[in-house]
């Protein structure tokens, strides 16, 4: 039984093309999210530096409006300013987790594509080699190198395509994950300083 010569390419490249489109969409969407991400203003940073001074809840509420992506967490801290520090910090942690969720969204999908694309390329490689050997079997007379080369060429190009998709996905995943962690860590430090500053004169109740 004979098959179209380019069937291995079709088998491998359809899912590879879908992976490429999905990866491009995720990377573009993540880049847009981080480009629109608002950082805390300098006045908020200066206010947070007063961790050894008393901080009025009204000052914290005013800072929440300028707190960038962690504004909701600062507002939660201000709303629980009269509570004990552990409860206040817990409320801020929960609010920050909700604020940070959009930063890490879809990164698992990007990692999945990075792992899946080489496997799909390998599928094309195996399929191409199978078709190359099938062509050798059905060929009458001495086997010419060109008969084998066609299948091997198809096998190699699908592997290369899978790697071409996977490498940018890995780089983008590492970049966005690092950027998200850096922003979350910065927000955590900001909230910790605010929580300390809410303690009157730096003394804990």
UniProtKB/TrEMBL annotation:
Subcellular location(s) per record: Cell membrane; Membrane
Database matches in Pfam families: MotA_ExbB
Domain MotA/TolQ/ExbB proton channel: from-to ranges: 82-188
A cellular component annotation (GO) from this entry: plasma membrane
Gene Ontology annotations of biological process type: protein import
Keywords: Cell membrane, Membrane, Protein transport, Transmembrane, Transmembrane helix, Transport
Annotated coiled-coil segments of the chain: none
Principal cellular location given in the protein's record: membrane
Topology class, membrane: Multi-pass membrane protein
InterPro entries in the cross-refs: ExbB/TolQ_transport, MotA_ExbB_proton_chnl
Signal sequence region: none
Family membership: Belongs to the exbB/tolQ family.
PANTHER family: BIOPOLYMER TRANSPORT PROTEIN EXBB, PROTEIN TOLQ
Protein name: MotA/TolQ/ExbB proton channel
Source species: Glycocaulis alkaliphilus
């Amino acid at each position: 039984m004979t098959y179209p010569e380019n069937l291995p390419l079709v088998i491998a490249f359809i899912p590879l093309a879908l992976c490429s489109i999905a990866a491009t969409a995720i990377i573009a969407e993540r880049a847009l999210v981080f480009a629109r991400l608002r950082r805390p203003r300098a006045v908020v940073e200066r206010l947070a530096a007063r961790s050894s001074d008393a901080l009025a809840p009204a000052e914290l509420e005013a800072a929440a409006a300028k707190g960038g992506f962690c504004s909701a967490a600062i507002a939660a801290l201000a709303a629980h300013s009269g509570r004990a520090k552990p409860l206040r910090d817990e409320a801020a942690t929960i609010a920050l987790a909700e604020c940070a969720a959009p930063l890490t969204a879809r990164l698992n999908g990007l990692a999945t594509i990075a792992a899946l694309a080489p496997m799909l390329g390998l599928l094309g490689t195996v399929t191409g080699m199978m078709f190359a050997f099938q062509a050798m079997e059905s060929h009458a007379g001495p086997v010419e190198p060109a008969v084998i080369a066609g299948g091997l060429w198809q096998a190699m190009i699908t592997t290369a395509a899978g790697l071409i998709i996977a490498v940018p996905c890995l780089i983008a995943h590492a970049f966005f994950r690092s950027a998200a962690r850096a922003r979350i860590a910065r927000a955590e430090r900001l909230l910790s300083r605010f929580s300390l500053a809410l303690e009157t004169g730096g003394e804990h109740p």
